[in-house]
Amino acid sequence: MNIVILGPGAIGSLYAYHLDQAGHSVSVWGSRHDQYHEFSLDNQSAISLVNRSLSHLEQCELLIITLKAWQVETAITPLLDALANDTIILFLHNGMGCVDLVAEQLQGHPILLGTSTHGALKRDRHHIEHTGRGQTLIGAWNQQGERCQFVSDVMHHAFAECGWTNSIQSALWQKLAINCAINPLTALHRCRNGDLGTPHFETELSAIISEVHQVMQAERIDLPLAALTETVQTVLKATAANFSSMQQDIEHQRKSEIEFITGYVLKIAKHHHIEVPNNQRLYCAIKDIESSWSNHE
Ligand code: KPL
């Protein structure tokens, strides 16, 4: 397939590498204006992918968006005119609510949403590390997307486990609950994911998870609280040595994804008239840190 990766950061480059090696025609669209994105994955030899090619965009059959959630709207808008009407667009990022912001502009395109549990780290501009082998789940966001189940086969063939789900909203909400529990707390306490497994955080963690669970129930996402808590604990253990993406963003004074993680929960909670004081407090604390930076937009 002709594939363009919009946002070749750590995760984007990881997918780009494997899809390229599987024989697809892959290019990237990054914020830098270099002609090529050259990088290596772990100890494998380096590859060079075309960057920001308009003709690649025009021929693109699958656009995979691996930007930070808050970057998506601004980045995709100027590219839309170049895309064919039937280019499949796959949103693959942390958080929820992004697609709603651009849905009107994307009318006609098959739209897919995905969630991934892979861990990847950008050591520097030319070196990517695959720090945790995970899975990718993909599902349709619109009717046109329902005909694109083959995309999960393409990705499964190129890379590790990738599956199709008819309940992508449930998968995204579970990932959102994981991110609501782990990301703001690790950012505020400047700690690794595994540190949240200590008794000190037990009460706070379960309060956060139970609030998100109430909102999920109101959204008719059917999952017992015990199962959701278990899922968060499993991820905490599996990623114990990692710093969460929000911890890293806050540490480096980069805008975080709080708006599309905890912020999304607050928005949906408000819609259902549900109180979520613990998530509200975390949201405000992260926003306060962001607005204290001198480079704050
Ligand atoms: O998705 C993550 C993130 O850091 O954003 C988790 C699952 C919390 C792993 O660190």
TrEMBL record:
User: Some GO term, biological process aspect, for this entry: which one?
Assistant: pantothenate biosynthetic process
Q: Which Gene3D superfamilies match?
A: N-(1-d-carboxylethyl)-l-norvaline Dehydrogenase, domain 2, NAD(P)-binding Rossmann-like Domain
Pathway listed for it is:
Cofactor biosynthesis; (R)-pantothenate biosynthesis; (R)-pantoate from 3-methyl-2-oxobutanoate: step 2/2
* Domain called Ketopantoate reductase C-terminal: residue spans: 168-290
Please give the superkingdom of this protein's source: Bacteria
The EC number(s) this enzyme carries: 1.1.1.169
**Keyword Oxidoreductase carried by entry:** yes
Which EC main class describes this enzyme?
Answer: oxidoreductase
A GO term from the CC aspect: cytoplasm
Molecular function per GO: 2-dehydropantoate 2-reductase activity; NADP binding
Pinpoint the Ketopantoate reductase N-terminal domain residues: 3-142
- Keywords, alphabetical: NADP, Oxidoreductase, Pantothenate biosynthesis
Q: Which reaction does it catalyse?
A: (R)-pantoate + NADP(+) = 2-dehydropantoate + NADPH + H(+)
Q: Oxidoreductase as a keyword?
A: yes
Q: Which family does it belong to?
A: Belongs to the ketopantoate reductase family.
User: Per its database record, what is this protein's job?
Assistant: Catalyzes the NADPH-dependent reduction of ketopantoate into pantoic acid.
- Alphabetized NCBIfam families for the sequence: apbA_panE (TIGR00745), PRK06522.1-1 (NF005087)
What protein does this entry describe?
Answer: 2-dehydropantoate 2-reductase
Q: Which gene encodes it?
A: panE
